[in-house]
Amino acid sequence: xxxxxxxxxxxxxxxxxxxxxxxxxxxxxxxxxxxxxxxxxxxxxxxxxxxxxxxxxxxxxxxxxxxxxxxxxxxxxxxxxxxxxxxxxxx
Length: 91
Fold this sequence. Notes:
disordered C terminus
């Protein structure tokens, strides 16, 4: 890890510190940088997908007509005997 001296916005740091689960400044800044890079990569992937769709590389009719997958969700056990082993469809 490298050390760099930078000027930061006090308001931005205070706002980040007020968030639930606030972390130390170093962790907050590193997390923000990672999230920014991840967001940029997702945006690039979206643009690539839009480009492929505009060129006809994707059959949008086939994708839009495909049935949505169905799932059965298992509710996590609550620790008491009443909550163990119960399953439910939906949420």
